[in-house]
Amino acid sequence: QVQLVESGGGLVQAGGSLRLSCAPSGRTFNRMGWFRQAPGKERDFVAAIRWSDGITNYVDSVKGRFTISRANAKNTVYLQMNSLKPEDSAVYYCAGKVGYGRTWSNVGDFDYWGQGTQVTVSS
């Protein structure tokens, strides 16, 4: 059974930091990503990483503030979030992509999803 288990969400003041973790089990993935969904909005891409070489991809609004990384030995992907803003508040989802497709920033590009972890940034 494939599972993606997220952890690390919580409540933080604006300007603060959080680190999310995602530990997949049951299979390996070519790419891992983070998406977020605020109430009443669509699920949006945040960041992704190519497992083989660590190449990353970010949405413009988080560039310079968020960093996605992976720890091969732990089979874990992280999202370090710094300088958090209230508009970063959302449920954050970890996602795994099995294939080698060209695109890796859309919800439909990913095959497996975690249950989500809440991030709330207070002003």
Major β-sheet profile? 7 strands, mixed
Mean pLDDT: 95
SSE topology string: EEEEEEEEEEE
Oligomer: single chain
Global morphology: globular
Share in helix:
under 10%
| Number of strand segments | 11
Query: What radius of gyration results from the CA coordinates?
Result: 13 Å
Spans of at least 5 consecutive residues with low confidence: none
- Proportion of residues in β-strands: over 45%
End-to-end C-alpha gap: 40 Å
| DSSP helical segment count | 0
Query: Structural class given helices, strands, pairing?
Result: mainly beta
Features:
123 residues; mainly beta; 7-stranded mixed beta sheet; 4-stranded antiparallel beta sheet
Descriptive notes:
The protein has 123 residues and is mainly β. The chain is 0% helix and 50% strand. The chain contains no helices and eleven strands. Strands 2, 4, 5, 6, 9, 10 and 11 form a seven-stranded mixed β-sheet that branches.
List the helices and strands and how they pair.
Blueprint: E1 3-7, E2 10-13, E3 18-25, E4 31-37, E5 44-50, E6 56-58, E7 66-71, E8 76-81, E9 90-97, E10 112-113, E11 117-122
Parallel strand pairs: 2-11
Antiparallel strand pairs: 1-3, 3-8, 4-5, 4-9, 5-6, 7-8, 9-10, 9-11
Report a brief summary of the structure.
This protein has 123 residues and is an all-beta fold. It has no helices and 11 strands.
